[in-house]
Amino acid sequence: MFDTARWTVLAPLLQAAGAGRDLLDDTIRRLTPEAVTQVVLNEIGEHGVRLDLHFDGRTTSHLRTDADVVVSLSLTDAVRGLYGTDERPWPSLAVRTAFAELDERGPGAWFAGRKGIARDVQSLLSALKPGRQDLGELSVTFGSDKWGDLHWYTQHYERHFARLRDEPVRVLEIGIGGYADPDSGGASLRMWQRYFRRGLVHGLDIAEKNVTGPRIMTVRGDQSDAEFLGRLGEELGPFDVVIDDGSHLNEHVRISFHALFPHVRPGGLYVVEDLQTAYWPRWGGDPEAGPGTSMGMLKSFVDGLNRAEVRDPQGEGSHLERDISGISFHHNIAFVEKGLNAEEGGPVFLRTLF
Ligand SMILES: C[S@@+](CC[C@H](N)C(=O)[O-])C[C@H]1O[C@@H](n2cnc3c(N)ncnc32)[C@H](O)[C@@H]1O
User: Fold this and answer.
1) What pLDDT is attached to residue 1?
2) pLDDT average, residue stretch 139-158
3) Residues 6+ apart with CB under 8 A from 181
């Protein structure tokens, strides 16, 4: 039902890219250099130079194979540049250019004709080792509404996601955007793909979507269908990050949370956006955001954090009381942290003493 084969090469490669060279080399051999080369080419797109990739004594040429400018790199370094965490300069980089004959226009024209070489080479190298823009900049670049217009969310995302940025995360965002138009939407998926350079980014929408990207997978489905979400979590999870930016109907937000939170990895985060609808009756909210609303659900988790103060700390408690280790609220957005809530409470005699 879900295209899990899509990640057969990418998932282990993203994991191995942060490990030592030997382990990465072994992984490339196991996945085959051809398949890994295809991953690299999908990620970097078109460029006006030839790219020679070297691995285990073999060299293969890519991009504009008839170009006069050739950039040579080991395949391992290309993967580390894209998905690794190593900031050092390229260990294997070499650039070769064909020299044109000097003609009647003289050396000035000869040098002027070579000015574009650096630009072409740099464009390829920047694609092979993308820079680190912050989320506000990325939001503007990709046209996401998470920074600007009605929402100012990226500052909060930056604070909570910074520790995950360089990890090989799995992300799921409910709501791709663009509603019924299949060719519209996906701005935030593209933003996450760039922010999480080692991330696999999944988007769920009730409408058919044509959003593509080297590490983006879209799924069509309804966020109010718990059984469907359970299967999605089983096959594409566990997720490090789930973001609910879908219908924003209170009932849907609650169904999605209960169905998907079990598929969040310990240490991961479940984010709910646009919590203003918890106060709006037409969206299933109420002005007090009481029980039954999305905020009501989230507020109950706050009490769950302190369960050991009123109940037997050795008792089992609900899985949400055990598995939620923190919650942060900001204007219209909340971050629920998955982790063991196992701290002991104060001694029983204290509860009745004052
Ligand atoms: C606010 S837009 C998402 C914007 C997107 N997350 C972004 O940041 O670019 C909401 C999307 O949720 C989708 N949606 C609405 N109801 C849904 C449901 N029940 N299940 C899944 N998606 C739904 C809509 O089709 C729409 O594309």
Assistant:
1) 84
2) 92
3) 207
